[in-house]
Amino acid sequence: MNLIKQGPMFYKLGFLICIYDFLLYNDIMRIRTTTKKNIIVFLAIFIIGLAFGAFCNNFIKGKLITTGIAEDLRLDDQEATIRAIQKVMPAVVSIIVYDYEEYITIDLKTGSRSVEKEKTQKGSGTGFLISSDGLILTNKHVVSAGKEKTSEYRVILNSDPSGLGYAGKQYYAQLIGKDPLKDLAVLKIFDKDLPYVELSNSDNLQVGTTVIAIGNALGRYQNSVTKGIVSGLARSIIASDQAGNAEALDNVIQTDAEINFGNSGGPLIDLSGAVVGINVAIDQQGSAINFAIPINDARPVIKSVREIGRIVRPRLGVLYLMITPELAQDMELSRDSGALILRGEDGGAAVLSDSPADKGGLAEGDIIFEINAIEIKNRNTLFSVIQKYKPRDRIGLKIQRGDKVIIRVVELDEF
Question: Which is it for the CA torsion 148, 149, 152, 155, positive or negative?
C-alpha cells in the first residue's frame, strides 16, 4: 500500500520527458533563438508530459487502491468466518448413541442357556445447544440409531475457548421427543449456564449467502468446519439413512458446504454466527450437493418443547408433493404450483384414515393451492403453512379437483 505514496514520481517523469523532448526538438531543428513558435511547441510538449505523468499516477494509484480493497475484503471475510465459528463452536456437541444387544450363551456341560446384554455403540452424530439449561436440537435419524426404549445418548462438549471448563465434559442425555414430520429430535442434558446458539430467520436467506457447516465428521473428527454458499432454496428431496429408512423432506436448503456422515444434526450458520439450518443430508450422486433443514421449520418444535415439554405438531393428514412447473408439465397437471396429494413410494395411503383431510373429503389427486388466502407456492410449502397453526384450529382450503375448484374447511388435529 506504501507504493501509492510514490505516485508523484510520475509527475517528475513527465516533466523530464518534456525537457528531453524540447531539447531533442531544438537539436533537430537547430534552432538557436527563442521564437514564438518555439514557445508554443515547448508549452504543448510540457502539457503533454504533465498529462502523461498524471495519467500514470492515477492509473497506478487506482490499481493499488483496487488491489487494496480486494485484499481488505478478503481479510474481512476471513475474520468474519473465524468470529462466527468461535461464537458457535462451544454450543456444538457430539452425540454418541448406545444400545444393548442380547447374546445367548449355552453351558456345554449342562445345556442351560442364559441371555446376556452388552452395551454397544450404534451410531453418532452432531447436535447444538439451543438453551442454557441444556436443550439440544439434532436429527431424528441420529437418535434413531438404537431402540427408543433402550438407547442411551452420550453428549460431549468439544470446545470451550472462554475457559469455563466445558471442553471435554460429558453428559448422558434424555430424549425429549422426535418430530413426526421433520428429521428433527430434541435431547436434554441437565446443567446450567451452558453455551447456546443464536437462531437466525431462515426466511430471509438468499441464494449466494455464505454459510458454514460444523459437525462431528465421520464420528471421529469433532467440530470439523466446512464453508460454502447457499446453492438453492425450497428443495424437495427423498433422503435415506444408512439403515435404508427413507423420508421425504421439503423446503430444504441446498449448499456446497461439505456435509459428511456424522455432521447430521449440526448447525449451518451464517457469517454473523447465527444458525440458519440443521445439516441433514447429502446427494452422493453429485459433488458438493448437501442439504439442511431451515431453522424456521424447527421453531415450532422448539416452542412446543419449551411450552409443554414435548413435541406437538398440527396435522392435516395427507402425503403430498410440491408442484413445480416442470413436474406440472411432465404429469400434465392443471396447475403449475400447489401441493399434489398422492400415495407414498411404499404404497402408503395418500389421505390418512380418520385424519382431518379424510373427514374433510380430500382425495388422492387433489391439488391444495391455497390455505386461508396463503398461496401454496415456492417457500410457502403445505408443511410450512400448516405449521403456522395449532391443533384444533380451523383452516380453509382451496383445492383443484380436475377442472373444478372446491373449498373445504377442516379442523387440524395433533400428531
Answer: positive
